[in-house]
Write a structure and sequence with these properties.
mainly alpha, 76% helix, 209 residues
Amino acid sequence: RRIVWLLIAYTLMLALLPLVLNEQAFQWTFSEVGPFEQLSIAGWLGTAVIVLLRIRPLRARAWAFALLCLAFAAREADWHKLFTGESFLKNSFYRDAARPFEEKLICGAIALFLVALVLYAGLVIARFLFLQGGWRSRSGAWLMAGTALVVVGKLIDRLPAVLSVDYGIELGPLTKHYSAAFEEGLEMAHPLILAWSVWISQTGRRYLS
């Protein structure tokens, strides 16, 4: 229950920040170098450590989830474009005729590996939640909540652009601030919720061992 109350308090804080922060402070707080983005990186790294230290026996599923958490941390830190100048996760990267073939080949192999990790993790989660009835357990409920946050966060992130480009609807400044606050806020909360699910799974319904 304390975790639930913490999440409620966290949500209320996100709702207040667009109202109490001035424009400069708000832009920095939710920027790529701001606290929410940096704490997201720390959250994913911490979740990887919890998986490796908490899950016993340590098998392929746990290693895959730990690697995926490290990949998410690298993504938040912009490592996907650190050496190439552009994200190698975008189609435009591979359509660039000026890029060396060897660079595309190496980045493509890494991208395919990451896609395979995501698909594998998705299958493990879906099987546990829906085929094994894990959604009725505490660890499963938190796992579902964390997964839902990813979807909600992406919808919030894309909504302003979709409304503007496809429907000609421009959101007001305050609405855009709320969109940014909740998108970054939910993004930071996701690894923490997943870490809690992993932690309590060892004393209840297990899905990584």
